[in-house]
What we know:
By secondary structure, this protein is of the alpha+beta class. The chain contains 9 helices and 8 strands. The protein has a 6-stranded antiparallel beta sheet with strand order 1-2-3-4-6-5. Strands 7-8 form a two-stranded antiparallel sheet. Helix 6 packs across helix 9 and helix 7 packs across helix 8. The relative contact order is 0.10.
Amino acid sequence: MNRKIEEFLTGKGLSVTGDKAYGTVNGYEVNVIITVQFSMEINVYFTCKADQTLIDDLKADKKLKGIKLSKFALGVKASMLGSLASGVVTKSIDNAMQSVTQALKERNVAGAEYCPVCGEKFDENKVAKQHNMSGLTVSLDDECLSKLNEDIKEENEKFAYSAGNYGKGFLGALVGTLAGAAIAVALFYAGFIAAISSLVAAVLGFFLYRKFGGKEDKKMIIIVSLTVIIGMELAVLGVYIGEIASAGAQYGYTFSEAWQIVMEDKVFFDSFIINLVLTFVFSVVGMVEEVWRNYIRTKRQDLIK
């Protein structure tokens, strides 16, 4: 973690380990995680008893504008895009910690003294202990920890034995890929090969894969990725086939004769191969971030330790 950011978080009373920080802010248990993959992302987790109604209410709060709010297993998650400037990052983190904790207080959401599972207050009979939940530090008593782990185990077993519906998911990915392929063809005729077409295909492909009922596991990543890459290649190949067939028909050649003639032209053949290779490269570049984001989503909740 950046030294200035670490100093800021330490100054706020949080303990910093690697890219994570943990502590209590305004009476709420807080985890801060800064990840740098394709961009810097700041995630601040507020442990509390929360449901979707609370999340929707927070989202409607104009004072929390610019903060992406969502629910995680034990509370509220606030996400923001970071910056290379450490001053901007610390300001974003401070704004999230102050504004979200204030919003939680205004809604009478219990803080660190209360269990985020059952909502009861910790005391000598309900002792809070710190546990690791997928990298987050959370306070739970033994009884609620056991219940939560039983629920997690049951959910993971249900998911493992649930129907894959990979055929339906593939159809969704295919529809998304067709949209991206249409953009690829339009750009190709304009003289461009760009990553935007595969990005569109990947975004729509993953979205429609789920809409069509495909199972969100690692096979989803393989199905959508291959569908997009092959679809982009076939789109460019289809342009060549169409143009060669059209030109051949004008001069009285069959398609196979026209294909053989143009492929014997070294300049044309080299251009054909280069365009296919570039299409593959730009397809991978265009979809890599979307693939990574969806891969993260396929990870199941581990048992809390």
